Amino acid sequence: MNKKPKAIIALVLTVLTVALLIWTCFYAGGKYVVFDPKGPIGQAQKELIILSTSMAALLIVPVMILTFFIIWRYRDAPDNKAKYEPHWDDSKKLETVWWSIPIVVILILAVITARYTYLLEPSKPMASTQKPVTIQVTALDWKWLFMYPEEGIATVNKIHIPKGVPVRFELTADAPMNSFWIPQLGGQIYTMSGMAMKLHLQADQEGTYFGSGANFSGEHFGQMRFDVEVQSDEDYKNWVANIKKQSKPLTKDGYLALAKPGLSQTDEYSSIPDGLFQDIVTKYVVEGAPNPHAGHGGASTEGSSKSGSTEDTGTMSNMNMSGHN
């Protein structure tokens, strides 16, 4: 087989591969949840992905086509009629084209990225006439504890939120660092011990959505999954009322047992200890120490400061892996 059919076969295979990827992502009915957003943050992130990919394709696709063309056009073959110019130096026109186009694309990408970075800042409250629901998230080994301080209830490995209402997540960890992620609602954000992160999301359609830890955190990290149940406002209120009537309370001893490494099924609690989330966040804070995390990693937490609010816990409360980005 000569080189011409080989080049044509390679080109055909490349085109078919790209077409197959596009088809499976958008038309094959697969669950590519990032491309099926159910809230304003997820939708904005999808737009950013498409815009960035399209801009990159303006460079990548022509380069790939020209690569195959050059390989075929200047192949070593007896019947090749391509003009041979061994002493050809440069072309000001070509140099201008292949330098100016990437520069313009990069500048456009920079503007787009900067705009969406500020727009999707995870700690930025969402514009809404609805009062946000606050959910305090604690990453444990290997489960998720969700506390609703305003409702006075808690759940394990499952979240309920009302449709169309902003949700303010306050996130920490009482275990190795993890990353909280609901792909159809928004980007992931770190959960770290000794810090209270913030993340604002919203779901605009009822349904059950997939949530997961997105960071390696030990033996069962792959099972740190949870469901997000989006309900009507009435159903949400009924759910809260049913938990208060039918579920057991979460005590401090109960929390200590829950925090031990191990897997857990979904669970619900009718009440939570006052200040439990703040106690978890400030667990390693030692009064008078120059380093606010002086007790981190130690066996004793005596003398820990239990005062303050989650707004003041950790100056890095807005650090995130990808946040809304």
From TrEMBL:
Q: Where is this region: Disordered?
A: 288-325
Q: What Enzyme Commission number does this protein have?
A: 1.10.3.-
Membrane-spanning parts? 7-29, 49-75, 96-118
Which InterPro entries does UniProt cross-reference here? CcO_II, CcO_II-like_C, COX_ARM, Cupredoxin, CuRO_UO_II, Cyt_c_oxidase_su2_TM_dom, Cyt_c_oxidase_su2_TM_sf, Cyt_o_ubiquinol_oxidase_su2
SUPFAM superfamilies per the UniProt record, alphabetical: Cupredoxins, Cytochrome c oxidase subunit II-like, transmembrane region
Give a Gene Ontology cellular component term annotated to this protein.
Answer: plasma membrane
Q: Name one Pfam family in it.
A: COX2
Query: What does the UniProt keyword field contain?
Result: Cell membrane, Electron transport, Lipoprotein, Membrane, Oxidoreductase, Palmitate, Respiratory chain, Signal, Transmembrane, Transmembrane helix, Transport
Catalytic activities: 2 a quinol + O2 = 2 a quinone + 2 H2O
Name all Cytochrome oxidase subunit II transmembrane region profile domain ranges. Answer: 26-124
One GO process term, biological-process aspect: ATP synthesis coupled electron transport
The positions making up the signal sequence are none
Ranges of residues in domain Cytochrome oxidase subunit II copper A binding: 130-242
The UniProt entry lists membrane topology as:
Multi-pass membrane protein
Q: Which GO terms describe its molecular function?
A: copper ion binding; cytochrome bo3 ubiquinol oxidase activity; cytochrome-c oxidase activity; oxidoreductase activity, acting on diphenols and related substances as donors, oxygen as acceptor
* Biased composition, class Polar residues, residue ranges: 316-325
* Compartments (UniProt record): Cell membrane
Briefly, what is this protein's role?
Catalyzes quinol oxidation with the concomitant reduction of oxygen to water. Subunit II transfers the electrons from a quinol to the binuclear center of the catalytic subunit I.
Q: Name the family the entry cites.
A: Belongs to the cytochrome c oxidase subunit 2 family.
Query: What is this protein identified as?
Result: Quinol oxidase subunit 2
